[in-house]
Structure formats: structure tokens, C-alpha cells
Amino acid sequence: MTRSRLRGTGSALPANVVTNAELAERVDTSDEWIVERTGIRQRYIAEDGETTSTLAIAAARAALDDARIEAGEIDLIVLATATPDNTFPATATKVQHALGCNGCIAFDVAAVCSGFLYALATADSMLQSGMAKRALVIGAETFSRILDWEDRTTCVLFGDGAGAIVIERDDASSSDSADAPGIISTRLHADGAQHDLLYVDGGPSTTQTVGHLRMKGREVFRHAVVNLASVLHEVIEDAGISTDDIDWVVPHQANARILDATARKLGLPAEKIVVTVDQHANTSAASVPLALDTARRDGRIKDGDLVMLEAMGGGFTWGASLIRI
After folding, report:
1. Catalytically annotated residue among 20, 104, 252, 280
2. If you placed Cys at 198, which of 79, 133, 249, 314 could pair as Cys (CB 3.0 to 4.6 Å)?
3. Residues 249, 274: contact at Cβ < 8 Å?
4. What's the confidence (pLDDT) of residue 173?
């Protein structure tokens, strides 16, 4: 079998940083309240002229630079987002045009906070099938545009940003060992019965509006810990490894409490968990690739490391992917 190998990562954030103290000036909240319940200290909020596509383009360019690959060598773009620039066409086509890789496959994936894992699995499958050789997989969001800024229980949780990776089919690899570089195992799930726990109350076909995010936080927390621990065990078993073999876990950065609870349930030490939620807040589909790029660029994640990616989002959708860097 061949594997899809990671060639590069990149990320992008809006220029505008909003601290908890600044947020408390417009919402009935406080820095202490937010930090105690979420671990978040600041977030980046897109301003006029900054959109999901502009963030995605910047992250994609950074990933291409890191991979030392020209845009024209990309033949697949899969972009995960719940906040596209337009209902259609796909935001991925804007990225394709801006990068100058016209003619390649380009489409969006909608699985909210799990979107990047769904996009990664889709791109990996297409590379394995021979439909493409090199892919850009992007998670990009401007969640600030769908927040109810009067609802302090949700508006403090989210931020904007983008992360991207370049993956390439490695035809030279024929090993199914966890020691070989590339994407080793991925598992995805969904449960539409939980729709009303985390959703947006608008849409073209229902209200003809964009709508605002609505969430029942305690219920989401409970499902997140159980579902993430379960899917992580699935991937570990499928790959034939133990939790001790994992060098790093790069989780969806939703809430520090969820990260802590999931780590405890798996018996993983806190020092193996990449945490960026304090700086970026919850950036939905951008969360995992943004955290992955941050940890690679600051030297924590190195070539040869065994890295577990995991996320859960509205739908519910959830999943995990094991990668040897």
C-alpha cells in the first residue's frame, strides 16, 4: 500500500486580537469567568476585508512554502469550513484561483469542527485512488460572523483563523507499519440525532438567513469526552499501537476542560497534548491544522513523531487520524 505523507503546514490569523478584557467591555463577562470555564485568554477576530477565503489563501501559501512545492503542482484542494464566503461557489475555488492552480479539483467539506478531519480523510482517499498526487487540505473559518454577541455563553468561545497542510502520495512506500511516515489510520463518525445540541439557527433552505450559533454547552461537553475517547481507541487499535507510542495529540481546541478530560480518560499525560485554545479560542475547522502548524513551527512536533489528530463538532460529527510526520 502507499501512504499520503505530510509535506508542509501553514496557518493564518486575522490582524485583530481581542482579549477577554476587551470582550468584557461589550458583553456581560470577565477574564476570570472565561479562563476558569474554557482556558481561553484571547482570540483573533476578522475585520472588514478579511474573509474565510483570504485566511485560507494565506494559510495555503504558507503551507506551500513550507513544503517547497509550487501551486501548479497541486491537483486537489479540499477546504473544510462552516462559514464559506458564499453559499456557492465553493470557497476552495477562490483559493484555487488565487494560488494560480486553476484546473485542479477544488471543493468544500462541511462537518463543522470535525471538518478538517473529514477533509483530510477525503483527500487521503483520493490520493490513494490515484485521482490526485498532491493535495492542499485546508480548514478556514470566520466564526465571528455567525456569533450572537449578546450570548455570553457562546460568543466568548470562538475565533477566526485558518490552517493548511500539503500531503503527497508516496508511491515508494509499501509498508503498513506505524513506523512508516504518512497517514496511518483514520476513523470518522456522525450522529444527526444530536442536531439540537450544537447548530446554527438559519440557512438558505429554512430561514433564508445566515443565522447564529446555538449550543447547549454541558451536553456537548459530555458527548465530546465520550466520543473522542472512543474514536481515539478505535484508531489506536486499528494501527496496532498503544497510547504510550503516541508522541503528540493535536486536538480540536474547543475548551481546555474537554482537552483535560479526554486526556485523563485515555491515560495520556498533559505534556503530550498540544494546547493553543488559550491563544486562538475555538476556530472550528481551522482548529486542528492551526494547532498542528503552531506545534511544528515552535519545534515541539518533529519529523518522525507519531501524532494523533482528533476533533468533534456540530452534527454531531467526530473523528481521529494518526500520522507519522
Report:
1. 252
2. 314
3. yes
4. 63
